[in-house]
Amino acid sequence: MAVKIKRIEHLGLAVKDPQAALEFWSKHLGLKLTHTEDVPSDHVKTYFLPVGETQIELLEATSPDSPVQKFIDKRGTGIHHLCIEVENLAELLLTMKRDGVTLINDTPRKGAHGYQVAFVHPKSTGGILLELSEKL
User: Fold this and answer.
1) Predicted model pTM
2) What per-residue confidence (pLDDT) applies to 136?
């Protein structure tokens, strides 16, 4: 299967104080908040700031059980993940699994903006949490 990479969809940043983060990105770089969304399955609230063809996604934990809160507790605030938009996500995941890639999600699931998403474990990517997304 030939993988079609469409673009870097977003860069996810784990933040403790989304209002302070929004103020920085807005005041100093002129970025505008265009979308917020609660993602209850991940115990997170997201804030999207477009940057050209991609976005910065601020991630606020909404529960102590949130993977984002666990990330902040362990590593502090900062870059949480890189998201790449692809075509044929389900097929790509099957291929990766067959090739021995460690996946966090074996099948696509609902993410923000109506995208289907799946995460690849950092042990398979050299230390980066990778989100793969597909707009349906």
Assistant:
1) 0.93
2) 85
